[in-house]
């Protein structure tokens, strides 16, 4: 790599955080331990925490002044606007994402993902396997034999996206992908990372690849935005996101039939049992 390339930032690590004082140091240490042959930056979106999260980040930022950039908000703006603020600040050719309550475990994570994307132009996103832990650092899930996976647009549309958690995701920093911030429906999503992956594929025609290695931990805890909410509330949010996807993405007649079958199998009874009859009818009509 020549000096000009060395001086350029190749990867922007984008992290959003809110009230993560128990976890943010571990996340930052995972970013900082990365062993790469390229420069990378760390952009932290701190969403007006009420605990010591910002103070901890500022301490790290003062020590690693050329690496860590703090994007702070004077009031709480929510996860999606916070996410878009760090994506907008990213200078790298690639963006690696990780929330402030998760962390990386492999010092070669960024290098392995960059090497893959540099040599495989047909993929817009590269992920890897993750270990799922609880708030006591006990393993909840870990695939015994990680394997390489790949997903196309139709796969993700139909909910096939295993081992693509946000703490594993690296994507190409492309204008057409970041256009998602101009889509009004995106601000209504709950599982915004899934819709981001889908939008990245739809806007580029490229695929997702999952490396067969465990290189991060995803943490389930009571303060989690998604993972620990009531199951009925979570299902309601999943139905809402499904409808946003149906209304705002394009798909072939074949995929439309598969989406209808998916809805009837996964969500129809939930809508009926919760007296969401008009919503069920609207979804079915949109897919007929």
TrEMBL record:
Key words, A-Z: Transferase
Domain Glycosyltransferase 2-like, chain residue ranges per copy: 12-144
Highest taxon in the source lineage: Bacteria
MF annotations from Gene Ontology: hexosyltransferase activity
UniProt xrefs under InterPro entries: Glyco_trans_2-like (IPR001173), Nucleotide-diphossugar_trans (IPR029044)
Protein name: Glycosyltransferase
């Amino acid at each position: 790599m020549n000096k000009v390339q060395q001086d350029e930032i190749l990867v922007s690590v984008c992290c959003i955080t809110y009230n993560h004082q128990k976890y943010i140091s571990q996340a930052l240490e995972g970013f900082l331990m990365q062993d790469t042959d390229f420069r990378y930056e760390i952009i932290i979106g701190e969403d007006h925490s009420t605990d010591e999260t910002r103070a901890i980040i500022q301490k790290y930022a003062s020590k690693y002044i050329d690496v860590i950039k703090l994007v702070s908000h004077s009031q709480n703006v929510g996860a999606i606007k916070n996410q878009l603020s760090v994506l907008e600040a990213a200078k790298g050719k690639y963006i690696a994402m990780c929330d402030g309550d998760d962390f990386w475990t492999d010092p070669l994570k960024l290098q392995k993902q960059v090497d893959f994307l540099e040599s495989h132009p047909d993929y817009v996103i590269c992920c890897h396997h993750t270990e799922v832990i609880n708030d006591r650092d006990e393993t909840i899930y870990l695939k015994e034999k990680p394997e390489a996976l790949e997903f196309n647009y139709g796969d993700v549309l139909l909910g096939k996206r295993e081992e693509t958690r946000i703490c594993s995701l690296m994507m190409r920093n492309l204008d057409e992908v970041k256009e998602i911030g101009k889509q009004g429906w995106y601000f209504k999503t709950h599982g915004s990372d899934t819709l981001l992956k889908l939008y990245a594929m739809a806007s580029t025609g490229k695929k997702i690849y999952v490396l067969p290695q465990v290189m991060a931990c995803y943490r389930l805890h009571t303060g989690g935005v998604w993972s620990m909410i009531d199951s009925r509330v979570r299902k309601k949010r999943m139905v809402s996101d499904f409808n946003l996807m149906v209304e705002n993405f394009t798909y072939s007649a074949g995929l439309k039939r598969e989406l209808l079958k998916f809805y009837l199998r996964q969500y129809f009874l939930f809508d009926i049992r919760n007296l969401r009859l008009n919503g069920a009818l609207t979804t079915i009509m949109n897919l007929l």
